[in-house]
Design goal:
The protein is an alpha+beta fold and 103 residues long. It has a single domain, classed as Transferase(Phosphotransferase) domain 1 (Transferase(Phosphotransferase), domain 1), CATH 1.10.510.10. The chain has three helices and four strands. The strands form two sheets. A two-stranded antiparallel ribbon has the order 1-4. A hairpin with a 6-residue loop joins strand 2 and strand 3. The chain is globular.
Length: 103
C-alpha cells in the first residue's frame, strides 16, 4: 500500500471540527464514493474488511483521495455464499444488530 501523507479520516474530521474550516459536501461524496468502490472491490473477491472505521481510512495530501487500509482482521470467505459468523473489529464501531446479538 502506498503511503497516504494526509493522515487518517478520523484526523481529518477532527481538523474540520476544531478549525472551523468547512468540509465541502463534494469532498465528502468523493471520499464516500472511493470507499464504496474499495469495499465493492473487496467483496467481489470475497474479502471482508471487518474493521471499517475512520481510523482505517487514509487520505492523501491532495485531500481528494481516500484509501481503505488496515486489513489486519480481514477475512477471505472460502466461497461466495458463505456467511461471516465471527464478531471482530472495534467494539465501539459495531452495529446495533451485532451488539444485540441479532447478527
Amino acid at each position: 500500500m502506498e503511503f497516504c501523507d494526509g493522515g487518517d479520516l478520523k484526523g481529518r474530521i477532527e481538523h474540520y471540527r476544531t478549525s472551523g474550516e468547512k468540509l465541502q459536501t463534494g469532498r465528502s461524496l468523493i471520499w464516500i464514493s472511493q470507499l464504496a468502490m474499495a469495499l465493492q472491490y473487496c467483496h467481489e473477491r470475497n474479502i471482508l474488511h471487518r474493521d471499517l472505521k475512520p481510523e482505517n481510512v487514509f487520505v492523501m495530501k491532495d485531500n481528494l483521495t481516500a484509501k481503505l487500509g488496515d486489513f489486519g482482521v480481514a477475512r477471505k470467505l472460502s466461497f461466495q455464499n458463505q456467511l461471516a459468523s465471527t464478531v471482530c473489529g472495534t467494539p465501539l464501531n459495531f452495529s446495533p444488530e451485532v451488539v444485540q446479538g441479532k447478527i
